[in-house]
């Protein structure tokens, strides 16, 4: 039985206290018609992109982002693209991990789990991350150091070294002294990340009827997303002249 619908105000309660309710059981997708699957796809997509706008618009209005302008359409697109990219990358990796187990209930159930999860918890993670990068001093420099270490490491293995000549000021982790607000951001990131993985894990069990081990395999594929995103970003920048958001100063 579906206890929480998209658009229901109860979702606000479930996000914090009962995230399991965000996920439909596998029975909903049994013998679902093509029209019903299409309806689910459209409603979830609308929900996802509305939440992307809700996430990106406040950041863009504040002039926050890796584009050096104040609020502009370019800045809005740049802020939206990170969440959209990670959302669809997570969907691909998550469903691939489920497909590997040979127990998939279909593409649409995975799409619903990932996109609702991304719209809520990943958006919270990204908001806290950008607050740390652009609105704090020590934590922002530490995050920038972590970003650059990730991209330099991945760039070494894919043969595309990143260009950080106009990059962000960094701070090695050995010299950090975080304020109370910066520590609160880190705690918030950890909590949101745990929620994010938990919903994906529960989704694999409830929607696809996977075992604990099989659900963990799907989550393992999702955890590779930062590495794949960094590699794809560097390769696109190198060969298609599409700039990486992490190599543009602000």
UniProtKB/TrEMBL annotation:
Top-level taxonomic group: Archaea
Transmembrane portions of the chain: 41-61, 81-101, 113-133, 184-204, 216-240
**What are the entry keywords?**
Membrane, Transmembrane, Transmembrane helix
Return the protein name.
Answer: Yip1 domain-containing protein
Give the organism, scientific name.
uncultured haloarchaeon
